[in-house]
Specification:
Layout lengths: L2 H20 L12 E4 L7 E4 L18 E3 L7 E2 L12 E3 L7 E2 L12 E3 L7 E2 L12 E3 L7 E2 L12 E3 L12 H4 L6 E3 L7 E3 L13 E3 L7 E3 L10 E3 L10 E3 L11 E3 L7 H10 L5 E3 L4 H5 L2 H5 L7 E3 L20 E3 L21 E3 L20 E3 L21 E3 L21 E3 L21 E3 L7 E2 L12 E4 L6 E2 L12 E5 L16 E6 L4 E2 L18 E6 L7 E2 L12 E5 L19 E5 L19 E3 L21 E3 L21 E3 L5 E2 L5 H9 L4 E2 L7 E3 L20 H25 L1 H23 L5 E6 L5 H15 L4 E3 H4 L6 H10 L1 E8 L1 H5 L1 H17 L4 E5 L5 H4 L3 H9 L3 E2 H4 L3 H13 L19
Parallel strand pairs: 2-3, 3-5, 4-6, 5-7, 7-9, 8-10, 9-11, 11-12, 12-14, 13-15, 14-16, 15-17, 16-18, 18-19, 19-20, 20-21, 21-22, 22-23, 23-24, 24-25, 25-26, 26-28, 27-29, 28-30, 30-31, 31-33, 32-34, 33-35, 35-36, 36-37, 37-38, 38-39, 39-41, 40-42, 43-44, 43-45, 45-46, 46-47
Antiparallel strand pairs: 1-2
Helix pairs in contact: 8-13, 11-13
Length: 953
């Protein structure tokens, strides 16, 4: 067979193997417009992301076992009833930011497991009665930013478990529109902000029972009246009236303050309400704990805060975005507060004595202001636990700034102008756990971390100007677990700079060019990220420092990143020698050549390997031999031209492979046969060739049921020029398998074999085939007769040869018809003219109770007589009845019957009548014939025929 024929034959066999998958497209793992993300347990949660794909319809290839679908930011205009019909396990559906104007009733009827439905930012105008049918387990429904102006009274009847409803940014006008929602048994949170309500009055609501609502948001409505006069909200805890009353001042009408006895949160940002009204409001809330008054400058000028500070239950006060001079001075009497937010108030200083009285204050936020130093009053806040001074103009920290804030647990000083730290600043911070001082101008730490804070857990000093880390720089931070020292200005790190960080788990650091591996003492370090700003070397230590390598033997994640576009950082194998528990290694832009094959020989537990922006064109497959448990491999932007190296090593555990932004033109699909666990493959942004060299890969993508080829339907062709811009999977691969010479070979071979087979059958089996054919015809006829139940027309059909016709008319008919009175069927007399002979024979045999075969040598040689006895014998064995009578006109030895195997078989199994042996006693002969004709339709075992044994037996 020619080579082309062999390859085509192999492809045909492959198609036969893949045929079940082709016939079941739901098994295909590569979705046309979405990507699949499995959780840790592939049998548990399946997340499908179809966002930002310009979809105009819901994809029809979503996996049936999907639990979460993201379809936001597309071009969907309508949801059809069948779109989600098979997703019975779906728990979260996001349809945000589309153009949906209509949803068919019952579209979600099969989503019984759905708990979250997000249809915000669409164009719905009304909610119909059966829109949410089937969503009995839905707990969160988001319908914000639509054009909803009508809600059917039965729209929420199926949502028996609903707890949160978001209806902001719509066109609802009457409070009665939300009555169906308030009747929900488990409702806890309702947002109707940014609608067209002009009043909210509970007297307009007719509820059969009180609502369980806890959070009510009616902000950004043109409310003129907010009235609660009926006890329908006994559990209400939070009310948001921000920016209400813009069309006219808001009137607060709650005559019985017991109706709001559980209110703990009230938000009045930029709310136009008369001073008298808000005074009445605040005085009627006996349980208020959190009050938000952003953009309330006018009322603050009218001494609103004096009233606020008299609320004995108030614990949290938000005054952000209020540009009021000396704002803090108005808070002198707010001694009950535990949380205070003064961010974005353009404050230049915190007035002396303004917060001194707040002995319970635990959290103070003054970020995004114009403070130039730490406010003096902070010193007096001995109960303070969280202090946020980020994004100010603080340039200096003194030893007295935090002298009494010994309970501080979190301190944020990000984005200021601090230049140095003194040793005394944090020495009393025994409880401090979080310290963020990134984006400052610090040039020296002044040994501030040599002595503490001792319980600090997280420290961020990134993007500062410190150029040198001295020995023992952080030795006082014995509890530290996270340290970020990323900076472009680090020039030198001394040998024992990290001594004392015995509990450090995560270190993010920038290293200088001549840095030697000096992480002595970091025995619990699990995550190390190293940034290089320019080319250099990451080298093993000097001989006398070699033991330091083994101090990071707990390291599990190691990341090296270089921002220099011309870096060439050599990765010495000894640097990884101590990392025997390393599970993830990332190298971004570190070298102009592939790593040495023995790089990971000491890291057998490596599971995740990421090398990006590195030239791996000369990669040696031996690199993977020491890491047989590799599960994740990312070689993006590495100038790879082929994936054949994957088939040369054992990567049986690999499940995630990303090789984007490379130079792959042809993909050999057989490579993936060596990756039995692969479930995720991303080959995006490669210059694929659209010709027969990729035909196998295309077929594999379309048919494989295990590996998801991410965004495969978006892969485009780069070669040849005529195919540029076309989709790879749209390439017609059928032409690749059409080998004309192979087809001609197969055709000619089949023709020769058919000719030989036909000759053999004609020569040796023609009678057997003919018999089988007529047997089949008899079977069909018999089936029809049985169904019709037609009575017999004749007593017997006489089968004889024309040469014996004289005997039939001279001897048989006078006796059987005239003397005995039998009705006989003779073909010369009774066959219907113009009817096919075989039909006449079949009708005669099945239309008669018996068949009499008048056998002679001429009879045996007759083709038609042979067919008649074959048909009669089939009826004999089919009906198992005594229907066949054999009359021999001549003595015929058995050996002469051999060529007529059917006749010989019948003679050997049945008795028969012989005319020559009757001699002069013909009366006995015809009496036996009469007895045979008189027998009923009993089984053949009751045969009444008698006669001698066949001649020759």
């Amino acid at each position: 067979m020619p080579p082309g024929g062999r390859s085509s034959l192999c492809f045909i066999l492959r198609l036969l193997v893949l045929l079940p998958f082709v016939l079941q497209p739901s098994l295909a793992y590569s979705l046309k417009n979405c990507t699949i993300d499995y959780s840790d347990d592939p049998l548990d949660d399946v997340f499908v992301d179809c966002s930002s794909r310009e979809l105009v319809i819901v994809p029809d290839d979503l996996p049936r076992h999907v639990t979460s679908v993201k379809l936001f930011h597309n071009l969907l205009k309508k949801i059809h009833r069948k779109d989600f019909g098979s997703l019975s396990k779906l728990r979260s559906l996001n349809l945000q930011d589309n153009y949906i104007t209509h949803v068919d009733d019952g579209s979600f009827i099969h989503l019984g497991a759905l708990t979250t439905l997000d249809i915000r930012s669409n164009r719905l105008t009304n909610l119909t009665a059966n829109l949410f049918q089937g969503l009995s387990n839905l707990t969160v429904l988001v319908l914000s930013t639509n054009h909803i102006k009508l809600i059917h009274t039965s729209a929420f009847q199926f949502l028996s478990s609903l707890q949160t409803v978001m209806l902001g940014f719509n066109n609802l006008q009457q409070i009665t529109d939300i009555q169906p929602i308030l009747q929900l048994a488990h409702l806890q949170e309702l947002s109707i902000s940014y609608n067209l309500f002009t009043s909210f009055e509970t007297k307009d609501l007719q509820l059969s029972k009180s609502s369980g609502l806890k959070v009510l948001d009616v902000s950004y409505n043109k409310l003129k009246k907010f009235s609660i006069t009926t006890p329908i909200f006994p559990h209400l805890q939070s009310i948001d009236l921000s920016r209400c009353g813009q069309a006219g001042v808001l009137k607060w009408d709650i005559p019985d303050k017991s109706l709001l006895r559980n209110i703990t949160h009230l938000y009045l940002g930029n709310t136009l309400i008369p001073f008298g009204e808000i005074q009445q409001v605040l005085q009627s809330l006996d349980s208020l704990m959190h009050l938000r008054l952003d953009y309330m400058e006018k009322l603050i000028h009218k001494h609103l805060l004096a009233i606020v500070c008299k609320i004995p239950t108030l614990r949290k006060l938000d005054l952000f975005w209020n540009k009021v001079p000396n704002l803090s001075a108005k808070l002198v009497s707010c001694s009950q507060l535990s949380e205070l937010d003064l961010s974005d108030t353009h404050m230049t200083e915190l007035s002396k004595g303004s917060v001194r009285s707040m002995r319970r204050l635990r959290s103070l936020n003054v970020e995004h202001n114009l403070l130039t130093k730490v406010p003096d009053d902070v010193r007096s806040l001995s109960s303070l636990e969280i202090l946020n001074l980020s994004y100010n103009l603080i340039s200096e920290l003194s030893c007295d700034d935090f002298i009494n804030t010994t309970r501080l647990t979190e301190l944020y000083l990000t984005s200021n102008f601090i230049t140095e730290l003194n040793r005394c600043i944090f020495e009393n911070f025994d409880d401090l756990k979080v310290l963020y001082m990134s984006d400052n101008m610090i040039r020296t730490y002044g040994q501030v971390f040599n002595v503490g804070p001792p319980n600090l857990v997280s420290l961020d000093l990134s993007r500062n100007f410190v150029s040198c880390f001295d020995d023992g720089e952080f030795q006082g931070l014995r509890s530290l677990k996270y340290l970020d020292l990323v900076s472009n200005y680090i020039e030198r790190i001394k040998h024992e700079a990290f001594d004392g960080l015995n509990n450090l788990e995560t270190l993010v650091v920038s290293l200088p060019l001549d840095f030697r591996y000096n992480f002595r003492g970091l025995r619990h370090l699990e995550n190390l990220t190293v940034h290089f700003s320019m080319g250099g070397s990451f080298q093993s230590p000097h001989a006398d420092d070699y033991e330091a390598v083994f101090d990071v033997e707990c390291l599990k994640v190691f990341t090296i990143i270089c921002s220099d576009s011309h870096s060439d950082i050599s990765l010495d194998v000894q640097i990884l020698q101590a990392m025997k528990h390393l599970e993830a290694f990332t190298a971004d832009n570190i070298s102009v050549s592939a790593p040495d094959p023995i790089t990971f020989q000491f890291n057998p537990q490596l599971k995740r390997l990421t090398i990006t922006r590195t030239d791996l064109s000369d990669l040696d497959p031996e690199l993977f031999h020491p890491i047989p448990n590799l599960e994740v491999l990312d070689f993006s932007n590495c100038y790879l031209k082929s994936l054949d190296f994957l088939a040369q090593v054992d990567l049986s555990a690999l499940r995630y492979l990303k090789v984007t932004d490379n130079d792959l033109t042809v993909i050999n699909e057989t490579v993936f046969q060596s990756l039995p666990a692969l479930t995720y493959l991303d080959l995006g942004n490669n210059p694929f060739t659209c010709d027969c060299s990729n035909a196998g890969f295309i077929q594999w993508v379309m048919s494989n049921a295990q590996t998801q080829v991410v965004n495969a339907h978006q892969y485009t062709c780069s070669f040849p020029v005529a195919q540029q811009g076309r989709k790879l999977l749209e390439f017609n691969t059928e032409s690749c398998w059409m080998d004309v010479s192979f087809i001609c070979f197969i055709s000619s071979t089949c023709l020769v074999v058919l000719t030989l087979l036909s000759s053999f059958i004609y020569h040796f089996l023609r009678w057997q085939l003919a018999y089988g054919f007529y047997l089949f015809l008899a079977f069909l006829y018999d089936s029809r007769k049985k169904k019709k139940g037609t009575p017999h027309q004749f007593d017997a059909f006489v089968s004889y040869n024309v040469h014996d016709e004289a005997w039939v008319y001279r001897e048989m008919l006078p006796v059987l018809e005239e003397e005995q009175g039998w009705r006989l069927c003779l073909h010369h007399r009774d066959f219907q003219p113009g009817k096919p002979i075989m039909e006449n024979i079949t009708d005669a045999i099945y239309g008669s109770r018996k068949t009499i075969c008048v056998i002679s040598r001429h009879y045996l040689q007759s083709e038609w007589c042979s067919r008649e006895i074959q048909m009669a014998s089939f009826r004999l064995f089919d009906e198992q009845k005594d229907v066949l009578i054999l009359l021999f006109l001549e003595e015929i030895p058995t050996q002469q019957l051999s060529p007529y195997y059917r006749m010989r078989k019948l003679v050997k199994r049945r008795t028969y009548l012989s005319w020559p042996q009757a001699g002069q006693h013909t009366g006995v002969f015809w009496q036996n014939v009469r007895r045979a004709l008189e027998t009923g339709d009993g089984p053949t075992d009751n045969n009444l025929l008698t006669g001698p044994a066949p001649a020759g037996e």
